[in-house]
Amino acid sequence: MNMTENVLIRKLEGYAQLSDDDKRVIRELCGENVGKVAAHRDIIRDGATPDHIHLILEGWAARYKLLPDGARQITAFLIPGDFCDLHVTVLAEMDHGIVALAPCKVAYLDAKVLDEITSKHSTLTKALWWMTLVDEAVLRQWVVNGRRRAIPALAHLLCELHQRMKSIGLVDDRVFELPLTQEELADATGMSSVHMNRTIQSLRERGLIEFRMKKLRIPDVQALAKTGGFDDSYLHLRTTHRPSEEQHLQLEA
Amino acid sequence: MNMTENVLIRKLEGYAQLSDDDKRVIRELCGENVGKVAAHRDIIRDGATPDHIHLILEGWAARYKLLPDGARQITAFLIPGDFCDLHVTVLAEMDHGIVALAPCKVAYLDAKVLDEITSKHSTLTKALWWMTLVDEAVLRQWVVNGRRRAIPALAHLLCELHQRMKSIGLVDDRVFELPLTQEELADATGMSSVHMNRTIQSLRERGLIEFRMKKLRIPDVQALAKTGGFDDSYLHLRTTHRPSEEQHLQLEA
DNA sequence: CGGTCCATTGATCTGCCTCAATTAACGTGG
DNA sequence: CCACGTTAATTGAGGCAGATCAATGGACCG
Predict the structure, then answer these.
(1) Which of B71, B129, B229 lies at the smallest CB-CB distance from A68?
(2) I need a labelling partner for A106 at 20 to 30 A (CA). Which of A156, B18, B151, B207 fits?
(3) pTM, entire model
């Protein structure tokens, strides 16, 4: 995988074969207006009506909702290549907030350009739709995951993050950046930070993960997947269903 | 609300102002190929690659996933006007199953027609996208709901179903058909059927719901919403943000 | 060197699960 | 119209995963 290439292109190529023209459109789009957001700052507030589309280029962010009692539920982790609000032209208000968990580089895209894409670039349009549908599939999996016991639930979440980071080329020899606190992981899985701590320790003791210095190492992905009952088919990656092509891509990388 | 009108049109009008041409397209689409599915039968199996799009015209269905231990997690309830698999042209395989919970009338739509719509009917395209995004917003809310205590979680779910049924004109004087067993409600909220029973009883005793003969009556919607911490803005209905228009629609009904 | 954030550990408490019956509702055939 | 089988609703009792409360230890930092 060409790591100097735009991360959104890397991501979309996990699904579609993009033409040079498609790639050019994306590169232009992402380069125009880029900003930085510090960790723990809101990228978009709940109830806001953003006037442009936010795309994460670097860093980690999270969708979240606040419960009446003040607790925070994270409903998605956003990594490079993920859109915050692809839907601005359709839905008026944000029904949740988005916060940077680590320092983020964010591209601000003109919403009008989206209309142009959907009318002129059918492959790209389909690829964007694919992203939305995968986000939905991930969410469905999170609903399921919320009902599992702490250990398989965490194992599953980490497998998902590993696979998604891998699909954009950010996993190096089973290690990837995971700049999340245990409390943030707890807010995502719906458990207390105390129990998240004990759950992490449990996975550590079993030799399934190594997690320190904001880096996660998964010595045996298969083993962790088994513990979490993880099957990546819901992520609908090309590589999921075409092992031969996956090897091909790995040779290129 | 014109109750003889196609249910999908009724639903989409909760979001967009459809032209007569838009409506004609939908009516033609829904009338061509219609079938029936008995309760407890799969409409689409997990892993299937449906060759046409399924639209619920009547009845109740559910998206579900099976956990490794055999438990069933319902991730969405489908009511008339809901699509089962609008995404067939983008995602190859179903990553979950869809089962009829009550006898269903289902329209089978030609997937090719969708491409035609997206290229020729921009309002309709946007409306379909809106549906997808609302489905996603509902899913996000389910993730949140999964972390709440049983009573507010159930109250919230019932408020959601009430609002969605109302938006397609299927609520009559605070009563609507809810042909679900307590076990099915339990599979949706992730609790045991035993505890679902006790939770229902609790809401009954508080006078918040009346539930028998497959009909649910909510004497005081506000009160139930308060118990569930329910705010319908995540459903992104036109009426949510335009109370004056809502009155207008009610007068028409 | 004190302050802040995060990870860790211990002890207690509880909402919900599980197991186990019983009762009610419903459909079906005799 | 009733006997019976099946499915759904209800009730009771006991157990546990994970919440909550409360501290301590460690890392980083101005």
Answers:
(1) B229
(2) A156
(3) 0.93
